[in-house]
Specification:
The complex is a heterotrimer of chains A (119), B (133) and C (289).
Chain A lengths: L4 E4 L2 E5 L6 H18 L3 E5 L8 H16 L3 E5 L3 H10 L8 E2 L2 H14 L1
Chain B lengths: L1 E9 L3 H16 L4 H21 L3 E10 L2 E10 L7 H4 L13 H8 L2 E7 L2 E9 L2
Antiparallel strand pairs in B: 1-2, 2-3, 3-5, 4-5
Helix pairs in contact in B: 1-2, 2-4
Chain C lengths: L2 H7 L1 H14 L2 H4 L5 H20 L4 H15 L3 H23 L4 H43 L5 E4 L2 E7 L4 H18 L3 E8 L5 H17 L2 E5 L3 H9 L9 E2 L2 H11 L10 H15 L1
Helix pairs in contact in C: 2-4, 2-6, 4-5, 5-7, 6-7, 8-9
Keywords (chain C): Phosphoprotein
Protein name (chain C): RsbT co-antagonist protein RsbR
Pfam families (chain C): Rsbr_N, STAS
Amino acid sequence: MRVPILKLHNYLLVSIQIELDDQTAMEFQEDLLSKIHETGATGVVIDLTSVEVVDSFIAKVFGDVVSMADLMGAKVVFTGVQPAVSMTLIELGIYLKEVPTALDLEQGIIKLRQELEEK
Amino acid sequence: MKETLSSVVIKQEWDIVGARQAGRQVSQELGFGSVDQARIATAISELARNIYLYTDEGQITFEEVRDIPKVGLKIVAQDQGPGIKDLSAVMKDGYSTSGGLGAGLPGVKRLMDDFDLESNESGTKVTAIKWAR
Amino acid sequence: MDVKQVVLNNSDYLIDRWIHQLDNKSLKDYTSTISDDMINQMNQEFADFVMKSLQQEDSKIESLDQFAEKVVNLGWPFGYITEGLQTFRTESTKFVLDQLETNDKDEFIDVMERVNNWIDPLKIRLLNQYSTNWNNILSMQKLALEELSAPLIPVMDEITVMPLVGTIDTDRAKLIMENLLNGVVKNRTDVVLIDITGVPVVDTMVAHHIIQAAEAVRLLGATCILVGIRPEIAQTIVNLGIDLSQFPTKSSLKKGFETALQMTEQHIVSNESKHEDIEEVLDSIGKES
């Protein structure tokens, strides 16, 4: 199973709707990076509203995606992190400090725009 | 008082997801809240991944435990792998031999209420309990 | 030998000895805050009650509950009750044995048993009354504490305040975090002001919980501002080497709110243009002179 990646102007929109196993997560990372390369997108919003569990591996993949996309000149914002997921991550000791976040898709796009303007 | 609820064999990567889905289901049946369900599922995911990464095969068992007046879920992750060489190092945040975040075992300890780790050359056994509030 | 009759026939003498004995004992410690008159009255009542319970066994359950309720409601220390009954037991046994003038072991045991049969039920009932009362108070307070644990108050679009009051332990911290995160998502909050004015002590553990809450809020995509930091709290935080530099802190809710307004690009505009009026008046004065 693959995670669909949608393009909207300069942005890529991703909504993760499936339970992520390690394999799918790695495939998603590759797909997203090649899509960024293909489209020259400058911003990515990844929505996690329907994600119920993020363990240390998935968290690492997410953190890596942010750094990798950054190297390719695209900003990534995560949106819709569930309270339970947020609490579990903090208790695991994973703070994802380098990962920009926003409440929902709308806020995420506003945040991207702000970050891109600042550059 | 103990009652084994279910058991999942960890052999392939996909079994990690299977284990946490099973864990989520039993925790729901035992009446855990949504945040505790996420804690339990995440802890199981970490334990299952350790089995998958470092050994050939292992097993995760869920038990219902009662300590009047509390009800709890006991997770036992057991394998016959090579064992953990440095027990105190794996309980430190940021320690990893596989390039991960090194949040696994200390993270599980924080997510759960009780935690116990036994390991020798013939295998590793992690026992963790979460009590329902 | 009827122990009951002996005790009843000499009840006045026994009560005297009992009260005398009480005064000599450490009972004073329990009741030091209560006036002597009150103690005397209570002692008399206690003694009457114990004697009465011996007299009329049938109706004793009711009067026992009444007495128990009374001492519990008046807040008399539990030690007073146990020590009082203990003294009664000792004095009665001593007295009856003196009367018997016997060295027979069986008779001695018999007297002991009879006295115990009289005193023990009293003790158990009173103890139950006390513990029921304590349990009630405890569960009520626990409920009350949970109720005022962590309210989340939306004050404006995108701005929410969470005042924390009282000591924060691990269980409460988890509850607070859950309320906080669910509230942020539900109210679509951009900025949360956590007010710790009402938190008496901020040690490393409490600070750790607050930092975790702030980090969790950030993961959701909102920002935490810690407000209500009193001077002594600032001192302990720095002295303990706690790093709170990752998120904004303000001394008062007012200042925090101003920051929150800036962050959400909102303004509060006063309807009355007082300043302009004053300026106009000043201007006109200037022109006149």
